[in-house]
């Protein structure tokens, strides 16, 4: 009696596919760790850097606006570049740009060189923001929620860890070393991405040819895309405003600088915890808009607490504020849940994050200007209340169970 066995070629192919997905997973997760390091490793050191290189508060403001501006620009150009060169090749270029930008800026002695190299690093990181969701869609379409949780968690870790250790590193070894060391993270992602690009070139030429000739999706015509952009952008605007101004709000109320720093850390940590469950929560509900309302309620209570009773229940207000931006990982997860293809995911990711980050650019600056003009915090928080209403409207559209491609096809 003969026993049926799988052909050797089928077994080899299965093992090859498994190994390939494992390398892609490693490559995605390592690069995700570096998608905020250029920002949070530099912000705590701005006073030292400006004192040595020689620039003032105006230029510090420019550096503060650069991340969202460059992320927004990356959102605009990345989908077209992805179609032209392929997602994997573009990601490899982004990894190299991030390495060079982070590593080289630590050696410069002029403001404009620091600005240019920071811009190079942020461009690489911004492309990574846009391209990783469609890569998850392409390679792990059967595990979107799980992989979204994994890579967004890595992004959050890459945000929190540099912020926590960059000052001690600078105290021990100088600010230049403290900046340069974070180039190691994207450097670790380099070889996995080289492997992915080589494997793709050798075995998937036809796919790349189709990708390069694929027409751009007119996502700007889609209500879904605009809803996603508003949901993502207003969440980012509120988040960056709170990161920038929580310490000042609390010190104006009589708290110490240390308390302000601790509350920023709590705000970040609560957001990190929310990241662990947000993608799965989003995927399990056909329409997760009810959860958006729950998280927005947390945000509004936190705003009210900081405005009217900043020194009473501060931990509660900031903890609720940290839960509010759970709509950020929800929006990133919806990019894949509301598209049928990796091309659709790339187009929606670029539009959502490109337009969204450009909206977010104005948040911290306008919040601060309103405080300067009025001398209080009521007008700035009223501004955030208005943007939160826009967030709810955008989320109502984004959360409806439908697909981008279907909507665009029906509109033709």
From TrEMBL:
The chain crosses the membrane at residues 18-38, 58-78, 90-108, 114-132, 144-167, 179-197, 224-246, 258-277, 289-309, 315-335, 355-373, 379-399. Coiled coil: none annotated. Residues 22-405 form the Major facilitator superfamily (MFS) profile domain. One of its GO terms (cellular component) is plasma membrane. The keyword Transmembrane applies. Pfam families: MFS_1 (PF07690). It is a multi-pass membrane protein. It is found in: Cell membrane. It comes from the Bacteria. Keywords: Membrane, Transmembrane, Transmembrane helix. Its main location: membrane. GO terms for molecular function: transmembrane transporter activity. InterPro entries: MFS, MFS_Cyanate_Porter, MFS_dom, MFS_trans_sf. This is MFS transporter.
């Amino acid at each position: 009696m003969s026993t049926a066995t799988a052909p050797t070629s089928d077994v080899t192919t299965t093992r090859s596919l498994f190994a390939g997905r494992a390398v892609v997973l490693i490559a995605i997760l390592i690069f995700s760790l570096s998608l905020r390091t250029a920002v949070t490793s530099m912000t705590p050191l701005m006073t030292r850097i400006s004192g040595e290189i020689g620039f003032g508060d105006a230029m510090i403001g420019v550096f503060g606006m650069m991340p969202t501006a460059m992320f927004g620009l990356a959102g605009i150009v990345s989908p077209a570049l992805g179609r032209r060169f392929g997602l994997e090749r573009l990601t490899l270029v982004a990894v190299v740009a991030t390495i060079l930008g982070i590593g080289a800026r630590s050696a410069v002695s002029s403001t404009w060189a620091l600005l240019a190299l920071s811009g190079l690093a942020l461009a690489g990181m911004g492309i990574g923001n846009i391209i990783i969701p469609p890569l998850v869609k392409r390679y792990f379409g059967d595990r979107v929620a799980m992989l979204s949780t994994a890579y967004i968690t890595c992004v959050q870790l890459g945000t929190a860890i540099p912020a926590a250790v960059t000052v001690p590193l600078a105290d021990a070894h100088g600010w230049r070393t403290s900046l340069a060391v974070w180039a190691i993270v994207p450097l670790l992602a380099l070889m996995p991405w080289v492997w992915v690009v080589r494997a793709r070139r050798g075995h998937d030429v036809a796919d790349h040819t189709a990708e390069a000739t694929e027409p751009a999706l007119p996502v700007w015509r889609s209500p879904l895309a605009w809803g996603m952009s508003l949901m993502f952008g207003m969440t980012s605007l509120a988040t960056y405003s709170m990161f920038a101004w929580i310490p000042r709000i609390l010190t104006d109320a009589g708290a110490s600088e240390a308390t302000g720093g601790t509350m920023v850390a709590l705000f970040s940590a609560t957001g990190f915890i929310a990241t662990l469950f947000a993608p799965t929560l989003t995927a399990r509900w056909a329409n997760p808009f009810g959860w958006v309302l729950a998280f927005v309620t947390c945000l509004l209570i936190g705003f009210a607490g900081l405005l009217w009773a900043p020194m009473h229940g501060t931990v509660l207000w900031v903890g609720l504020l940290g839960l509010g931006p759970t709509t950020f990982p929800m929006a990133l997860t919806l990019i894949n849940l509301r598209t049928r293809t990796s091309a659709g995911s790339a187009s929606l990711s670029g539009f959502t994050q490109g337009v969204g980050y450009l909206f977010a650019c104005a948040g911290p600056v306008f919040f601060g200007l309103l405080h300067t003009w009025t001398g209080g915090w009521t007008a700035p928080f009223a501004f955030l209340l208005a943007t939160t209403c826009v967030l709810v409207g955008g989320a109502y559209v984004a959360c409806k169970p439908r697909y981008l491609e279907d909507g665009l096809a029906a509109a033709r």
